[in-house]
Automatic annotation (TrEMBL):
<dbReference type="InterPro" id="IPR010104">
    <property type="entry name" value="TonB_rcpt_bac"/>
</dbReference>
<keyword id="KW-0813">Transport</keyword>
<keyword id="KW-0732">Signal</keyword>
<keyword id="KW-0675">Receptor</keyword>
<protein>
    <submittedName>
        <fullName>TonB-dependent receptor</fullName>
    </submittedName>
</protein>
<keyword id="KW-0798">TonB box</keyword>
<dbReference type="Pfam" id="PF00593">
    <property type="entry name" value="TonB_dep_Rec_b-barrel"/>
</dbReference>
<keyword id="KW-0472">Membrane</keyword>
<dbReference type="GO" id="GO:0009279">
    <property type="term" value="C:cell outer membrane"/>
</dbReference>
<comment type="similarity">
    <text>Belongs to the TonB-dependent receptor family.</text>
</comment>
<feature type="domain" description="TonB-dependent receptor plug">
    <location>
        <begin position="85"/>
        <end position="185"/>
    </location>
</feature>
<dbReference type="InterPro" id="IPR037066">
    <property type="entry name" value="Plug_dom_sf"/>
</dbReference>
<dbReference type="Pfam" id="PF07715">
    <property type="entry name" value="Plug"/>
</dbReference>
<dbReference type="InterPro" id="IPR012910">
    <property type="entry name" value="Plug_dom"/>
</dbReference>
<feature type="domain" description="TonB-dependent receptor-like beta-barrel">
    <location>
        <begin position="468"/>
        <end position="917"/>
    </location>
</feature>
<dbReference type="InterPro" id="IPR036942">
    <property type="entry name" value="Beta-barrel_TonB_sf"/>
</dbReference>
<keyword id="KW-0812">Transmembrane</keyword>
Length: 950
């Protein structure tokens, strides 16, 4: 981005890439128009210099007497960027983000109106914008589309060290020059430009220690961690060459002890009244823990030999190694047990009772030792050149982004056996569990026998099911702009083109030993435990009333028995082959856009209008099980050859035209009314575009499964925004009210189509050897664009104020907060709570509220932040993914810092912070709070440290 003498440069001046919120600065004049039309994901270029200078003169008048520090400076900078933007945007800047020891920038983004986050291991990660989940959010870094480590398109912001991000802009209304993809909005992250640093040379060192007050409650967890970063910025060759380097490292343990109820997918008459009740799949009690270790690196070089030419090269790399274990109990398939003394809800769900073995082996009580460790990385970078001559500005950019993810996904279960030490031990059949759910409170759970006796307990099942994803994007774009100096209506015309190639690859594999329910075969006997590979662990804290369990080192047990896990793709488990596929997207986009700057009566009207053309080609290669032996021979990871699987390539091409309009009516310098309208699109999740499919024969019918389709259309919507913004005279505050409406044409859902015309869709059907004719059409379990669609609409209220008019020390007091209300008629049917019920749009919370009370004076800076989100629907991970309601939650954070102003300690800032101050848990349920889902506590995270700036 190009910022000349702007406030952002001054916000970064004392802190480089890891700006401390406690630093002190006196902002200089800002070219506000440059802020409004910076080079971002859109490829925008600066507007006409004459008009920019006129706006700058007014802005200098407003800013000339302002001296702000810390969080106040961040608020004022963000207000300034929003004020002069040509679209509906919200912004967080370096003093805000870089001054926080957050795992990601998500916490900072959730202070913006209408933005909320879902917590993973207690930390905010993926974000929702205006009630729409991360799959509807486009994310760029330095103008370049980012690959995703999630296996879909959802960006997990904990991959990006907050110390390395100088600004994040959320575009809530699009324009033709923005990269398409954000139905909900676009998040543009930016790193610093060293030529905009006010110092010739600067360096920053940051070190913080962390402590989680629940870490000691989890067996094997470490409550302590740290964050460290260092950066350098320098200007050379008479300020024509700028170099910047940054490194950030984080080690942060996490804990999340939990009770987790499973879906009500069973049916059984438990009270003898002749009517079946709904029984749960079971429930889990686990100590979850682990650690996250992240290393981030960033480099940038900017060469500006003249005012007319700039060449910038930048690169970013982040490696995230997250260990995640879950140890405890799982009580499984309650409907297979004998249920006595049942507690039955009005709608028929069983929420308590005693469940005992009755000879059915598929009811069991397991000790679980799961491993969901993940290694992810993101590499992003590119080269950008800008050339200006007269009224012409040309920008070229080439770049790439590569995201990788490798998830272990290992499970191991121990069961009680009779006759351990004999040649043929048998699983115990006298188990019983008594339980009573208590809505969103901790339930009562007890067992009839001690499950920590290693003389009876044995390792019955180990499974490893790795997920491996790679998402690579390469792109090149060219933008050309012509500025008019004397046109009374159009200030500039801009056009551009972008070509991108994206390739996604998913790999699945499997390795198993033993059996879920202890029914071993093929010599896979239960494996004995000893003091060296297992020990007794007990729940503490909120879950201290639950029974103790065996913590088992499954790898050590296997090694003692000469067994080595070797996951492979297998025909015997052909889902590993079907779900291993590639998706390729080639996109050519071109746009033309005009900037409006005219007068209506005595008032100024600014904005832009244009259209973006997008030509998309999406294809997938995968395996289809045709089952007739006519396919070319293929060998799996075990060396087994099969001729039943055909490699197929399927997909389609389509063209879209996306018009957009942004108008800003200036009543005066302090008040403006914005209106925006556009057609927008978001492409389907990458993992839903795979072409592979399994199959089975039923009589003379050929059937396929897969729940994916390379023929899916994007999400399309018509988006409208109307907002009023008032900016206070001293530039220390703003009030904004916004209305938005999005009419979404369709959503993607899994659907079984019976019968399905396979031949008509270009899908090969095998030959029935008995008739020598193709099998008849059977059912197809696939993904489709439904014809329901629906709307998302709402209102946002935003208020920010630094109370400079207060006397003396009180002038450092301020407040920023927002309220957002969203609603939608989009629903889907869920039976996870037993009775069919309509649930809302995933990710949408009707009310999202946040507020920050802050104070800064003479180097001291403190703030108390709270963010509330109403209940919402989303997926939770247990044994399988489940769609549940998340209960309302309020997360409170506190931070205080002090920056020494003079003497030998000048440049040193001390910091103290508490995240999740009230230890807010996550609570979920299946439609009704009587049907407990997850109860999970993450603990308070304390940080103490310092920043030293040179």
């Amino acid at each position: 981005m190009v910022f000349k003498r702007n406030v952002l440069a001054l916000a970064l001046a004392s802190v480089g890439f890891c700006a401390a919120s406690s630093s002190y600065a006196a902002p200089q004049a800002s070219d506000s128009n440059d802020q409004a039309t910076q080079t971002t994901a859109s490829g925008d270029v600066s507007t006409a210099k004459a008009k920019a200078q006129a706006k700058e003169d007014q802005h200098v008048k407003n800013m000339s007497t302002i001296t702000v520090t810390g969080f106040s400076r961040s608020i004022e900078t963000s207000i300034d960027v929003k004020r002069y933007a040509d679209t509906v945007v919200d912004v967080v800047t370096a003093a805000d983000i870089g001054g926080l020891p957050d795992v990601s920038i998500s916490d900072a983004l959730t202070r913006l109106p209408g933005i909320s986050a879902e917590r993973i291991n207690g930390e905010a990660s993926a974000i929702n914008i205006r009630g729409m989940s991360g799959g509807f959010v486009e994310t760029t870094l330095n103008g370049r589309e980012q690959g995703a480590t999630s296996g879909s398109r959802v960006i997990q912001f904990d991959q990006y060290p907050s110390e390395m991000i100088s600004q994040a802009t959320v575009y809530k209304s699009p324009k033709a020059s923005l990269i398409e993809g954000g139905v909900a909005g676009t998040v543009e992250m930016q790193t610093a430009n060293p030529l905009e640093n006010s110092k010739q040379y600067s360096a920053v060192f940051n070190l913080r220690g962390s402590y989680n007050d629940r870490g000691n409650e989890t067996d094997g967890a470490n409550p302590r961690g740290y964050r460290a970063s260092a950066s350098f910025q320098g200007k050379f060759l008479n300020n024509t060459l700028g170099l910047g380097l940054g490194v950030a490292q984080m080690y942060q343990p996490h804990v999340a002890d939990q009770f987790n109820g499973l879906a009500y997918n069973g049916s059984k008459d438990v009270n003898g009244d002749g009517v079946n009740e709904y029984t749960s799949e079971g429930f889990e009690m686990q100590q979850n823990g682990g650690s996250a270790r992240r290393n981030g690196f960033m480099g940038v070089a900017v060469w500006e030999p003249s005012d007319s030419f700039t060449l910038k090269a930048d690169g970013f790399y982040s490696h995230f190694d997250a260990t995640n274990f879950g140890r405890g109990f799982r009580v499984k398939t309650l409907s297979n047990g004998a249920i006595t003394n049942p507690a039955i809800q009005a709608d028929g769900q069983v929420t308590g009772g005693t469940v005992s073995s009755n000879g059915d082996p598929y009811y069991t009580i397991q000790t679980t030792n799961d491993d969901d460790s993940t290694v992810t990385s993101v590499l992003s970078g590119g080269l950008n050149a800008k050339w200006t001559t007269g009224s012409w500005t040309i920008i070229g950019d080439v770049g790439m982004s590569r995201a990788k993810s490798d998830m272990t996904n290992a499970v191991s279960w121990t069961l009680p056996f009779n006759g351990m030490g004999t040649a043929a031990p048998t699983v115990a059949n006298d188990l019983s569990a008594s339980y009573q759910l208590k809505n969103l409170n901790i339930p009562d759970v007890s067992f009839n026998r001690d499950l920590t006796d290693r003389n009876q307990m044995a390792l019955a099942k180990v499974g490893v099911y790795p997920y491996i994803y790679e998402d690579k994007t390469k792109a090149a774009k060219l933008d050309v702009r012509y500025d008019f100096f004397n046109n009374s209506v159009i200030s500039a015309v801009e056009a551009g083109a972008r070509y991108s190639q994206r390739r996604y690859q998913a790999d699945r594999a499997i390795w198993e030993y033993g059996n879920d329910f202890g029914q071993y075969q093929n010599g896979q006997v239960p494996l004995a435990l000893n003091d060296g590979n297992s020990h007794t662990a007990c729940f503490k804290g909120n879950l201290s009333g639950f029974p103790c369990f065996l913590s088992v080192n499954s790898l050590a047990v296997l090694e003692e028995n000469g067994i080595t896990p070797t996951p492979t793709r297998q025909w015997a488990n052909d889902w590993t082959q079907i779900q291993s596929a590639t998706v390729s997207e080639n996109v050519l986009a071109a746009y033309v856009m005009a900037d409006v700057d005219t007068m209506i009566g005595d008032h100024n009207l600014t904005g832009n209008f244009g259209v973006r053309m997008v030509r998309s080609s999406q294809y997938s290669e995968g395996l289809q099980n045709i089952g007739d032996g006519s396919a070319p021979p293929l060998t799996d990871g075990l060396g087994v050859v099969s001729t039943n699987y055909l490699m197929v390539r399927r997909g389609k091409k389509y063209t879209d035209y996306l018009p957009s309009l942004n108008l800003n009516y200036h009543f005066d310098d302090a008040n403006q009314l914005r209106f925006a309208a556009a057609k927008v699109m978001s492409r389907p999740p990458l993992n839903k575009l795979m072409a592979g499919g399994g199959s089975w024969i039923d009589g003379n019918k050929y059937n396929m499964w897969g729940n994916t389709s390379p023929f899916l259309d994007p999400f399309y919507a018509k988006a409208y925004d109307l907002s009023f913004e008032h900016y206070m005279d001293d530039n220390g505050g703003a009030i904004a009210a916004a209305l938005f409406y999005k009419k979404i044409d369709s959503f993607i859902e899994d659907r079984t189509i019976d019968p399905f015309d396979f031949a008509g869709a270009g899908i090969q059907v095998p030959i029935n050897p008995n008739t020598q004719q193709p099998y008849e059409n059977g059912q197809y379990q696939t993904a489709v664009n439904n014809d329901k669609g629906g709307y998302v609409r709402g209102i946002e209220l935003d208020y920010s104020k630094v109370f400079k008019s207060l006397p003396g020390a009180w002038s450092g007091l301020g407040f920023t907060g927002s309220f957002a209300y969203s609603q939608s008629k989009v629903t889907e049917t869920s039976t996870l709570g037993g009775t069919p019920m309509q649930i809302g749009l995933p990710g949408l919370s009707p009310r999202v509220i946040n507020g920050t009370l802050f104070y800064g004076y003479k180097g001291f800076d403190t703030r108390l932040s709270a963010r509330y989100r109403d209940r919402f629907v989303s997926n939770q991970m247990s044994e399988d993914s489940q769609t549940v309601y998340y209960a309302p939650e309020t997360v409170v954070d506190y931070q205080a810092s002090y920056a020494f102003q003079s003497g030998s300690l000048k440049g040193l800032s001390l910091l103290f912070q508490v995240s999740n101050l009230t230890d807010q848990p996550t609570r979920t349920y299946f439609g009704s709070e009587d049907l407990t889902g997850t109860l999970q506590w993450f603990g308070r995270q304390y940080y103490v440290g310092f920043t030293y700036a040179l």
